[in-house]
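Internal QA ticket QA-208
Title: Verify multi-chain structure generation after dependency bump
Assignee: T.L.

Test input:
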Amino acid sequence: MSETKKTDVDVLAIGAHPDDIELACGGLLIKLVREGRRVVVLDLTRGEMGSRGDAEQRTREAEAAAAVMGVMAREEADLPDSRLANTTEQQRAIIPYIRTYRPKIICALMAPDRHPDHAAAHALSRDANYYSGLKNIDTGQPAYRAPRIYYFYPYTELAGAPPCVVDISDTFETKMEALRAYQSQFHNPQYPGPSTYISSREFWDGIETRARYWGGRIGTQYGEPLYTETPLMLDALPGLETGAEE
Ligand SMILES: [Zn+2]
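Actual output:
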């Protein structure tokens, strides 16, 4: 794990592959960093099975993207790409990160998803957080469970209408800048590798189309849909904020 100070962060964002987090909730994370929140990203794999870019290149790209977002640390759990599964062994590999950073909130991937690793990461992140709260699972650290998990989709929302959409109008351009750090992954005519689903021009353009669609649903320029598996507590009704426009 990185040498950065490691306790009581606001958010631990867990993706299956480098770039998942930027696609899924990069706008939100940048917004939180700008508010002074402590945000850490954990990539479960290094994306070494991808058709473009090797593990070293993808790690360099992930570090560059982390610098653009301004997160305080980015970690790699080094679980096997294309073999993520919600097993005891893989849960135990994630628990030390949750206990080290003690996040108030975990952001994780939503399911179902066309990529099996994403669906596995959904259950794996949720269940690792649960078991992290059991003191008889010994990692040499105090037990800790993040009180809340929010879920996001990197590509396409397959779970139906989201309960919330985050306004990312002010951070969308920085999210795209973070994504451009993944030179081997997305549309890049200079890159010599084979074409993939996410390297197409259509996928790249679709990132903005989705953000505009979700922004349009809440009356803003850009948005990121957010899912939960438990009800959200509101102590103020949106629409009745002090100073809200008529
Ligand atoms: Zn992925």
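Spot checks passed. The chain has one domain: 11-226.
Status: verified.
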